[in-house]
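Usage

Read records sequentially. Each one opens with the input sequence:
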Amino acid sequence: MFTLILMLGAALAASPPPPALDLATQSLLDAGEIVMVSDPGDGATRAMVEIAAPPGRVWEVVSDPDHIRRSTRSVKRLDVHMDTLRVDGIREQRLGYVLKVAFSEVQYNVIRLYDLDASTMTWTLDDSRDNDIVATTGRFTLYPTADGGTLFSYEARLDSGHRLPRWIVNELTESSLKRFLVYVQDVAPEQVHAD
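and closes with the structure output:
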């Protein structure tokens, strides 16, 4: 735990500057709203939310498999295949998900890489395991705010490989994304106040 605290402290010192936000977006974030950012050209689902907890606390929540399991009812099973700190300082998690989607279950596996120096976590599909989807990639980026909180930016792409219209896949990812962000927004500050 002490090593994690030292790593988080060093990472926060090297955090990138937050993105430039227009007044309307900043007003929504200040009001606690999740701001969905659309770019129909690349098929990614993006969102931002402000969280009333420092980045270190947010990392604790988003990297904890128990919190991932509790964040949405669609996670039926989450297996941790590996969780290690590599020699290069990157935390690597290999996770296996089983999600309930409509009337079926979808299984897929991801490799999550936490680069605290860059204040990011990225993921890709783990092709070494069986998956029911063709691809998924994504990124979390955390930016410390002046009031001691965190601007949490989330980006995800999913290719189901099925003949589903793109809007259905986007709706599934957007819906899941919103539930996750609401969960983190609710839980991370509770942990701060519990300390």
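Summary fields computed downstream for this record:
- The radius of gyration is 17 Å.
- Helices lie at 2-13, 23-30, 55-62, 65-70, 166-194.
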